[in-house]
Design goal:
The chain is an alpha/beta fold and 409 residues long. The chain has 14 helices and 16 strands.
Amino acid sequence: MARIPMGKPLVEIDGDEMARVMWHWVKERLIEPYVDLKTEYYDLHIKVRDETNDQITIQAAEAVKRLGVGVKCATITPNAERVKEYNLKKEWRSPNATIREILDGTIFRAPIIVKNIVPAVRFWKKPIVIARHAFGDIYAGTGIRFDEPGEAEIVYRSASGKEIRAKIGSFPGEGVIQAYYNLDRSIISFARSVFTYALTANMDVWFAAKETISKVYDARFKELFAKVFEEEFAEKFKEKNLNYYYYLIDDAYARAIRSEGGFIWATKNYDGDILSDMIAAAFSGSLAMMTSELMSPQGHYLTEAAHGTVQRHYYRYLRGEKTSTNPTAIIFAWAKALKRRAELDGLDTLRRFAELLMEATINTIEEGIVTQDLAKIIEGQNVVVVDTESFIDAIKNNLEKLIAKHINV
């Protein structure tokens, strides 16, 4: 078949370690043979970020703003050990945090559901989508470690010279302090993104915080969510018979466990980081079975795999060993980015290809052909555990069957 044409390019953001290896296998075997792929490429390998003083990360984010659609591979956020391992200049900040702040986006993470994996929570029948605020919180926080008795306060000085002081406390000995912040405009954008997504997905929205304890920070989130909903979305939700619920976060956890799923759970940045991993593990046992989409109120869109760089498998790969690493989330990241590009550019054949790529991946797992991470939780008697490349080849076989049936180019 002739390759499916594209219009505008999408932004391709490369990453690190085993995720990077799988990234290129997926691209070369499942996309390029069928699509006349156009990308604007940015390499966020840890050494490139180090060599450019992390400017490459900023350039990649600005490219997503310019072109509208991007797809990102998992990247290393270096700690002290990684600095030594790669001989880096410093512990560079999370590239995801940098990109999210530039795009002012909300992350929507949803489990990839297949018939032969039963959720660990027996009540769950529908997906729970985690909408994670992608700005501020502890990811933009500042920490201080102190080694003797003293006291601390927060000082805010406005551009006009106004000063606000609040005492944190007096300390009898050594310890640590952390301060973080958020902005009203970002919280409002977050709320708008969540409610807009809910209308598209036809799902209820939950938002949970702890304003009874965090009487300023969490209370502001609660107040602004309520304001945006009442002023901009209440009538639209009523027309679609949808609901918005606010809960204290401990109550929300309890309610979620007893629910059947089928809602969007809007979370602050740190809460979403934790919850998305928990939801992935509970629904399908693996972060490789979770999608991750970043959407901004301006329409900027970035997909990525929810998992990390899979460091241990990468070391085995470097030793020449075959690994059984699950590339499903990477495949879905590529597919969703292509689908979004197709929708924006009015390319029906490209959109259909993206949908078939996701369908072929699900079909492969439901046939019992799986990687090692799913072997212990998959149901059925005809389970075949394969290495990563064999898994991709099985998907390719299913994809070609679907293309022959549904696409004419």
